[in-house]
Structures are given as structure tokens and as C-alpha cells.
Write a structure and sequence with these properties.
Blueprint lengths: L1 E5 L6 H16 L5 E6 L4 E4 L16 E3 L6 E4 L3 E7 L2 H4 L3 H17 L6 E3 L2 E8 L11 E13 L2 E9 L19 E2 L11 H16 L2
Length: 216
């Protein structure tokens, strides 16, 4: 069984990290159930293990936390659904690539519920959408914006950290970093794309598609 937790107030990053580490340890020992935690953070930046200092372009704008997850710099803040995923890969197959693929599939299937096509790009972490409403890039290809981030860590084959989907965050807050080290593409959200979607709508879709992709 997977326990679902939802926080209705903003959760401090240190508090979330402490919870995840403690819960992952308990799951590894067989003392707790797997867990998915839906929450929002106050505005902050997190630095993954591959973060480059020059990609933090406005270091004094918001607090910066060392996340110890994979990836580079990421923004979290109100209007963004963060889903922290504490799952036991000892029971789900010890295959990190397959697990990341499942997370990508989960996000893409969720976006599809809102008639939005999310895509994966080689060399670019996260989920992207094509922008037909923007000018073509200099190479003649369609513009693309990032709508979801993915970053995980494993401890004793139990995952923590997870995904974040931009529902209606303040997109200007991304200006203080180079998101995931990528300069030639932008960031978007469901509402920015003209979809009248609420956080509750996204939560329902995420939970429904999780059961489809991960089997409950």
C-alpha cells in the first residue's frame, strides 16, 4: 500500500527533506509504507549534485538549498505541485533507468488528461511542451518550454525527492537560475498555456495516473 499525504500550507524545504530522509529509512527497514507527498514550497532554489555555480544568476533572490538529488538548479514555489515519491525499489525492481522512465510516463500521462502533449528530450531532464504560439528557434525548430522537473535520490534502494509540475507559479521566479542548466529554452505552466486548471484538478489526475503507471 502507498500512503498519500497532502499538505495544504507551504512546507519549508528543510522540513520536507528531514521527513523524506526519515521516511525512506523507515521504508528500507520495513517499518513504514511507501509514500507520495503532495505539497507546495515557499519560493526557493535547490541545487542538485550537478549544479554549476554560474547557473545561479541571482543568488540573493530566494533561499538556496543543497538538495543532494540528481540534476542541477530547480525552482520551487507556490502554484507548483511538488510530488515527493518515497517508493521501495527493492520491491519494484532495482532498475533506476526504468524508474525514471516511469516518473516521466506518470507526468506525461497526467498532462494528457488536459489535452497537453508532454515530451522527453535526450540530454534534457524533465518534461517539455512544444510552443506553436512562439517564433521558431534559429535552427528552424519549434520553441519548447519546460513544464515539469524530475529529480530523485536513492538510499538503500528507496527513492525520495520526485517531480514538480508547473500549475500556476510565478514564472518570473525562474529568472534567478538557469533551470537545469538549459539556456535556449523557457519555462511554462498549465495556466500559462491557457488551460483553466486548478491544483485540485492536477492532484486528481496525478493520483489516477500513478495507479495506472505504478500499479497503486
Amino acid at each position: 500500500m502507498v500512503e498519500w499525504i497532502q499538505s495544504d500550507t507551504l512546507v519549508d524545504y528543510d522540513e520536507a527533506l528531514t521527513f523524506m530522509e526519515t521516511r525512506a529509512e523507515a521504508i528500507a527497514k520495513g517499518e513504514a509504507e511507501e509514500c507520495i507527498w503532495f505539497l507546495e514550497h515557499p519560493p526557493l532554489y535547490t541545487a542538485g549534485t550537478s549544479a554549476k555555480r554560474e547557473d545561479l544568476t541571482d543568488p540573493d533572490r530566494f533561499p538556496v538549498f543543497e538538495a543532494k538529488r540528481g540534476g542541477q538548479y530547480t525552482y520551487h514555489g507556490p502554484g507548483q505541485r511538488v510530488a515527493y515519491v518515497m517508493l521501495d525499489l527493492n520491491k519494484r525492481g532495482k532498475d533506476i533507468r526504468a524508474f525514471v522512465k516511469q516518473l516521466e510516463t506518470w507526468v506525461i500521462a497526467t498532462l494528457a488528461e488536459f489535452n497537453l502533449t508532454g515530451e522527453i528530450r535526450d540530454g534534457r531532464v524533465g518534461v517539455w511542451v512544444s510552443r506553436d504560439d512562439k517564433p521558431l528557434q534559429v535552427n528552424g525548430e519549434k520553441a519548447e518550454d519546460k513544464i515539469a522537473a524530475i529529480g530523485i535520490r536513492l538510499k538503500k534502494w528507496v527513492s525520495f525527492h520526485g517531480i514538480s509540475v508547473n500549475v500556476e507559479p510565478d514564472l518570473s521566479h525562474f529568472d534567478g537560475i538557469v533551470p537545469c542548466g538549459i539556456t535556449e529554452h523557457g519555462v511554462t505552466s498549465l495556466v500559462d498555456l491557457g488551460l483553466p486548471v486548478t491544483m485540485d484538478d492536477v492532484d486528481v489526475a496525478l493520483r489516477r495516473q500513478f495507479e495506472q503507471v505504478f500499479g497503486g
